[in-house]
């Protein structure tokens, strides 16, 4: 059966290719701002991922397995989105330095033939080292943090700030492969 990734993310596409060699990409137009945050980060990331998957399902007219994901960075239960500008990126990274934060992913897999929807979430604990203001400014100059939740990419230059992680590395990148592998097996 056809497999569809509901994401424009290059990172997610590269990661999914490790599990599935042949898949299509249909980008979701789902408006994430429509999902209310009601205090549960776990529920929130699953609801956003479900919204993306259902949006792509509505666009399709053939049987398929649809995969969608949403990843957010949190610090003390506050969601740290993508920075609005360089100053915001600086403030986000500064808030993370020397501290532990959590990265959550919500993953949804839909089998349109069986009308089965599986929703899962995963959290990974990430510890940052102490970072000087100069190091933060140099990192921002690379442009990498400007389109990343939490203003860093663990798989890129931002990985130099990561002191330790507890949990799935690929979850922090944006697609927890081990979790997804078992979800795909379950939905088939």
From TrEMBL:
The active site is at 70 (proton acceptor). Its cofactor is a divalent metal cation. Its main location: cytoplasm. It catalyses: dTTP + H2O = dTMP + diphosphate + H(+); UTP + H2O = UMP + diphosphate + H(+). Gene3D superfamilies: 3.90.950.10. Its EC number is 3.6.1.9. GO terms for molecular function: dTTP diphosphatase activity; UTP diphosphatase activity. The record marks 11, 71, 155 as: Important for substrate specificity. Belongs to the Maf family. YhdE subfamily. This is dTTP/UTP pyrophosphatase. It comes from Clostridium puniceum. The gene is yhdE.
């Amino acid at each position: 059966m056809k497999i569809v990734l509901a994401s424009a993310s290059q990172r997610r596409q590269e990661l999914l290719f490790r599990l599935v060699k042949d898949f299509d990409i249909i980008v979701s137009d789902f408006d994430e701002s429509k999902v209310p945050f009601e205090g549960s980060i776990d529920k929130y990331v699953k609801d956003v991922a479900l919204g993306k998957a259902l949006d792509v399902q509505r666009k399709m007219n053939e049987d398929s397995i649809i995969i969608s994901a949403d990843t957010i960075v949190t610090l003390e239960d506050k969601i740290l989105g993508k920075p609005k500008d360089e100053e915001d990126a600086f403030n986000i990274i500064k808030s993370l330095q020397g501290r532990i934060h959590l990265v959550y992913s919500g993953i949804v897999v839909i089998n349109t033939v069986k009308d089965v929807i599986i929703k899962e979430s995963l959290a990974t604990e990430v510890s940052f080292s102490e970072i000087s203001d100069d190091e933060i400014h140099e990192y921002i100059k690379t442009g990498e943090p400007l389109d990343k939740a939490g203003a860093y990419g663990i798989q890129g230059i931002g990985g130099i700030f990561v002191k330790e992680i507890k949990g799935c590395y690929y979850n922090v990148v944006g697609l927890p492969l081990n979790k997804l592998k078992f979800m795909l097996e379950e939905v088939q």
